[in-house]
Design brief:
Blueprint (H helix, E strand, L loop, with lengths): L1 E7 L3 H7 L1 H7 L4 E5 L10 H4 L5 E5 L9 E5 L5 E4 L12 E8 L2 E9 L8 H27 L2 E7 L23 H10 L5 E3 H5 L26 E6 H4 L2 E6 L15 E5 L2
Parallel strand pairs: 1-2, 7-8
Antiparallel strand pairs: 1-12, 2-4, 3-4, 5-6, 6-7, 8-10, 9-10, 11-12
Length: 269
């Protein structure tokens, strides 16, 4: 098995004070993808910068205190790459990928923090520019994996709920960033047949959710009024090996260490 977890930590130093390190010590994952780390490596204490038993790689954002992605892997990677090949975004702390040898093949695992956007502002324009650039990267990544006989997996906070089943209050969010028709259409193009697969949805095709993000406001968590925006998006052959997926939802509001929950998938390669 190759077990991979993705989670937006909403500030890794804050998450560490609430229980993230305990979770990391107990997880059985082989690879952990983190988003919204919000720190330079030299700002992190050793247990976060280089946790015992892990090879850790970080891609902070040039804008201090924003974004930032990391990948932790138990097995040393054969390659590490930062960015998606777009000059505007390669220092934005939004994408980092590694190549991991597993079962005689190379598995590329990427940690993605796609911009959240905000309707009617430059932030939404930035999101669309990133989406355009990242789609080109996804195409090249899939083609390279196919040519080399390997696999590719992009985990992270995609900041788009694809279908009505992916958020509780879809009717009231049809004009909200993250559920706009054009965003959903873009994700549909990513998930075209014979391209990429939304692994958790493929394993749970007829269910609502399972949600991975709940606002800290109101009773969203207690009422399970969430969004499913933290995705495992895999090339077809890898997606077919997915044996089980789970959202590691905290047992209660006060035991959360992020507003997102870890999404873990075991791949039987």
């Amino acid at each position: 098995m190759l077990t991979v977890t993705t989670v937006n930590v909403n500030g890794v130093r804050a998450a560490a004070k609430k229980g993230f390190l305990g979770w990391l010590e107990s997880t059985s994952a082989d690879v952990v993808c983190l988003q919204e780390v919000r720190a330079e490596p030299d700002q992190l204490p050793a247990p976060l910068r280089d946790p015992d038993g892990w090879h850790a790689y970080h891609a902070p954002a040039a804008a201090k205190g924003r974004a930032g992605v990391s990948v932790l892997t138990r097995r040393a990677p054969t390659a590490v790459r930062v960015g998606c090949g777009a000059a505007e975004f390669d220092a934005s702390g939004r994408y980092l990928e590694i190549d991991v040898p597993h079962a005689g093949a190379t598995v590329t695992v990427g940690s993605l923090y796609l911009p959240s956007g905000e309707v009617g502002t430059p932030r939404q324009d930035e999101k669309h520019r990133f989406m355009d650039a990242f789609l080109a990267h996804l195409t090249a990544l899939r083609e390279r994996a196919a040519q080399d006989g390997g696999h590719a997996l992009v985990c992270g906070d995609w900041n788009i709920a694809h279908q009505e089943a992916d958020l509780k209050n879809w009717r009231s969010n049809q004009k909200s960033a993250g559920f706009l028709p054009e965003e959903r259409a873009w994700l549909t193009s990513v998930l075209a047949p014979d391209a990429w697969t939304d692994v958790v949805r493929a394993l749970h095709p007829d269910t609502t959710g399972p949600y991975s993000w709940w606002s800290y406001r109101g009773k969203a968590f207690d009422n399970d009024s969430g969004w499913r925006i933290d995705l495992h998006v895999a090339t077809g052959a890898l997606a077919k090996t997915a044996a089980r997926a789970v959202v590691e939802r905290a047992p209660s509001y006060d035991r959360r260490w992020s507003d997102h929950a870890p999404v873990t998938v075991a791949y039987d390669l």
